[in-house]
Write a structure and sequence with these properties.
The protein is an all-alpha fold. It has one domain: Up-down Bundle (A middle domain of Talin 1). It contains eleven helices and four strands, in the order H-H-H-E-H-E-H-H-H-H-H-E-H-E-H. The strands form two sheets. A two-stranded antiparallel sheet has the order 1-4. Helix 2 packs antiparallel against helix 3 (59-84). This is Calcium/sodium antiporter.
Length: 338
C-alpha cells in the first residue's frame, strides 16, 4: 500500500507535465487533454477492476466500484484539490464538462432503476462516449482559436504600451515563459512522460487496491462496502494524485477536467465495455441510495462550477464534509450485515 501510494504521486507529476506538453503540441487546451488522455488513463484502474469483478460474477463489486469512484472523484478529490488551491476553469469548459458529467450521471441512474445494464445498452454507451469526445474536440478547437486571436491582440496592445513606457516588451511574458519552461517541448519526452506516468498510476493503484482489499477481506468486510469504499477509493487514487499535483502546480483547469472526464469515462466506457463483455446486475441497495448520492454530488459540483467557474476552499471543505458523511452512513448501513 505504501509503495503504491508513493508511486501514484510520482507518476502523477510525470503525467501532468506530459499532458500539458501534449496540449501545447496538439494546439488544444490542457483541459481537453485532462478530459481525454489523463481522464481515460486515470480511469483505467476502474476498468480493470470492474471487468475482473464482472467476469467473476461479482456485479455488486463492479457497479459499486464505478458508483463509489464517481462519488470519491466529486466529493473527495475535488474537495482535496480545492482546499490545496482554489480550482478554476473557463466558463465554456465548466458548462461543457459539467453538462456531460450530469448527463452521464442521469443515464446511470435511469439504467439503475431497471436493475441491469445489458449488452446493447453498453454498446450505445460506448458510442455516446466516442460522439462526446469528437464534439468536445471541435468545441475546444473553436475556443482555442478565439483565445489565440484575443491573445495576439492583447500582446500587440501590451507591446505598444511597453514601447511608449520605454520598457522591454519581453519582460511582460517572463512569468508565462517560466511556467512553460517547466513543460517538456520534445515530442518523444512528452510521449514518454504520458506513457510512463499513466503506467505508473495504474501499477501504483494496483498495489494499493490489492493491499486494501486484502485487509478488508481479512477482517470480513462485506463485498458491497469493499466495492463502494476501499476499491472505489483505491481505483480513484490516480485521479487524486493527478488532481493534487495539478492543484500544487496551479494547473487547476487540468484538475477539474481530469475529474469530470474520469466521471464520464467511468459511466460510458467502463460500464459500457463491461456490459458488452458481461451484462451487469445492479443491487437494490445501490439502486436505492448510492446512485442518488452520486447524482446529488454531480449537481452540487455543477452548481459550484457554473455559479463562478471556481470551487474555492470553502466549497472544497463542503465537498470533503459531504464525503465524510457518506462514508459514515456506509458504516451504519453495513454494520448489521457484518
Amino acid at each position: 500500500m505504501a509503495v503504491g501510494l508513493a508511486m501514484l504521486f510520482i507518476a502523477g507529476e510525470g503525467a501532468l507535465r506530459g499532458a500539458i506538453g501534449l496540449a501545447q503540441k496538439l494546439g488544444v487546451s490542457p483541459a481537453m487533454i485532462g478530459l481525454t488522455v489523463v481522464g481515460f488513463g486515470t480511469s483505467a484502474p476502474e476498468l480493470v477492476v470492474t471487468l475482473d469483478a464482472a467476469l467473476q460474477g461479482q456485479s455488486a463489486l463492479a457497479i459499486g466500484n464505478v458508483v463509489g469512484s464517481n462519488i470519491s472523484n466529486l466529493l473527495l478529490i475535488l474537495g482535496v484539490g480545492a482546499v490545496i488551491s482554489p480550482l478554476t476553469c473557463e466558463a465554456g469548459a465548466a458548462k461543457r464538462d459539467a453538462g456531460m458529467m450530469i448527463g452521464t450521471a442521469i443515464i446511470l441512474v435511469a439504467l439503475g432503476m431497471t436493475g441491469e445494464i445489458v449488452r446493447w445498452q453498453g454498446a450505445i454507451m460506448v458510442a455516446m462516449l466516442v460522439g462526446i469526445l469528437f464534439w468536445s474536440y471541435r468545441c475546444d478547437r473553436r475556443t482555442q482559436k478565439k483565445a489565440a486571436a484575443d491573445k495576439a491582440a492583447a500582446d500587440r496592445a501590451a507591446a505598444e504600451a511597453a514601447a511608449e513606457a520605454g520598457t522591454d516588451p519581453d519582460d511582460i511574458h517572463v512569468k508565462e515563459l517560466e511556467e512553460v519552461g517547466e513543460v517538456p517541448q520534445n515530442i518523444w519526452v512528452i510521449l514518454a512522460l504520458n506513457i510512463v506516468g499513466l503506467a505508473g498510476l495504474l501499477f501504483g493503484a494496483h498495489l494499493l487496491v490489492d493491499g486494501a482489499t486484502g485487509i478488508a477481506y481479512r477482517f470480513g468486510v462485506p463485498q458491497s462496502i469493499v466495492g463502494l469504499t476501499l476499491v472505489a477509493l483505491g481505483t480513484s487514487l490516480p485521479e487524486l494524485a493527478a488532481t493534487v499535483v495539478a492543484a500544487l502546480r496551479h494547473h487547476t483547469d487540468v484538475a477539474i477536467a481530469n475529474v469530470m472526464g474520469s466521471c464520464v469515462f467511468n459511466v460510458l466506457s467502463i460500464l459500457g465495455i463491461t456490459a458488452i463483455v458481461q451484462p451487469l446486475v445492479i443491487s437494490p441497495d445501490i439502486q436505492a441510495i448510492d446512485l442518488w448520492v452520486m447524482l446529488a454530488a454531480s449537481l452540487l459540483v455543477m452548481v459550484l462550477l457554473i455559479r463562478a467557474c471556481t470551487i474555492g476552499r470553502f466549497g472544497g471543505a463542503v465537498l470533503l464534509l459531504a464525503y465524510v458523511a457518506y462514508i459514515g452512513s456506509m458504516a451504519v448501513r453495513f454494520v448489521p450485515a457484518i
